[in-house]
Specification:
Layout: H1 2-17, H2 20-36, H3 40-53, H4 61-73, H5 76-84
Length: about 90
């Protein structure tokens, strides 16, 4: 059981020492990888969740609506624009 807690500790230490810019870039990298694999919904969901929980990363719901609509339509180009739009 102790082994399950170790990765959580490492992740929380990493997040606390990461700048907002680093956090956003790491989130975008994960979302881009999912997008490359054709997993549009997962890419948008990953980016949306990361931006909701990240340090000073909250954005208006209307921005997330762009990603949701792109994922629902299967529009890779708009999903990519949604992901790349974060800075």
């Amino acid at each position: 059981m102790a082994n399950k807690n170790v990765p959580l500790l490492v992740v929380s230490l990493t997040l606390s020492t990461m700048t907002r810019e680093q956090y956003v870039e790491r989130s975008k990298e994960r979302a881009r990888a999912l997008l490359r694999d054709g997993r549009i919904r997962e890419a948008v969901a990953e980016m949306m969740m990361d931006m909701r929980k990240g340090p000073n990363s909250r954005v208006p719901h209307e921005i997330h609506a762009i990603g949701i609509l792109a994922a629902a339509a299967g529009d890779t180009a708009v999903a990519r624009a949604y992901i790349e739009g974060f800075n």
